[in-house]
Amino acid sequence: MLHSNLLRLVARGSSSRLMSTATKLTTVEVNDETGIATLTMNRPPVNSQNVQLLLDLQASISEIENNKSRGLILTSAHSNVFSAGLDIFEMYNTDVERLRTVWTELQNVWIALYGTSLPTAAAINGHAPAGGCLLATACEYRVMRPNFLIGLNEAQLGIIAPKWLMSGFTNVLPKRVAERALTQGRMFTTQEAFEAGLVDEIASSKEEAVEKCAAFIGSFAKVNPLARGLTKLQFRADNIKEFEKIREKDVADFAALASSPEVQKVMGTYLENLKNKGKK
Ligand SMILES: CCCC/C=C\CC(=O)SCCNC(=O)CCNC(=O)[C@H](O)C(C)(C)COP(=O)(O)OP(=O)(O)OC[C@H]1O[C@@H](n2cnc3c(N)ncnc32)[C@H](O)[C@@H]1OP(=O)(O)O
Description:
Helix content: 40-55%
Strand order of the largest sheet: 1-2-3-4-5-7-10
Bound molecules: ligand LRBWVUCK
Structural class: alpha/beta
Low-confidence stretches: 1-14
Number of helices: 11
Order of helices and strands: HEEEHEHHEEHEEHHEHEHHH
């Protein structure tokens, strides 16, 4: 991967720098002209979020914050999936400690992305169910390619999405639309997501999506970064405070629910259906 990334950069000229391949499942490239960092998830085939991807995402977000980038664009290395959400295989037939770790690291990624003062945007170049939608809605702006699906489908898995997990979603959708979508576990098409306000723009290619995200981040060029960042965080402070109060209990609640025989059974059936889908 390191080799192919370097080749890609050389072929493109020196307009962007690959800051890090220290982590295996994410890469960070900073555009020399704009100073904007692109954080790419690369865990084939569908960027399902196992503990390693969640840790790598946290490391990359810290790196982008520390290298003084002007903003962060989150995207995927794959052609039709942004992220399939949590890796269900990692949560199936496992012990409670593993479930606690998975959930703790999901919380850590969410708070790192939701709570950064940097401008953030998601170039959603494929499907974004569940944890994929969570990451996209933690960002301030979303641009999505046509004919894909996005949404929080936890209800379909027998899981109750906690309030913090819903907050990015409920911040951008009217309350009534959000309540109905969450109780149905609804997946929106790109067009439906755009019409509802879940995504801000539609782009016909990943490159165009990244460009539109960069234009959004560029719109802050003349705004004082400290004032911008603190204003953003004031808007998010209530969600963050509420999350901090319940984060430990939330891990315990998730581990208890996800390890219950009922939810394990739903996960087993869900995984079977996913595998069989490939055979049809
Ligand atoms: C149960 C606890 C819930 C905890 C709370 C919520 C957070 C979550 O994130 S739960 C995860 C919910 N995710 C989903 O429901 C998405 C499931 N996946 C899909 O709908 C499709 O795979 C997707 C639309 C993302 C992509 O479709 P395709 O491009 O057609 O790919 P395939 O469906 O053929 O999948 C390829 C390959 O990947 C495996 N896969 C897909 N999703 C996951 C996943 N979330 N975890 C682990 N593995 C996943 C799928 O089984 C296929 O594997 P193979 O058959 O071995 O190729």
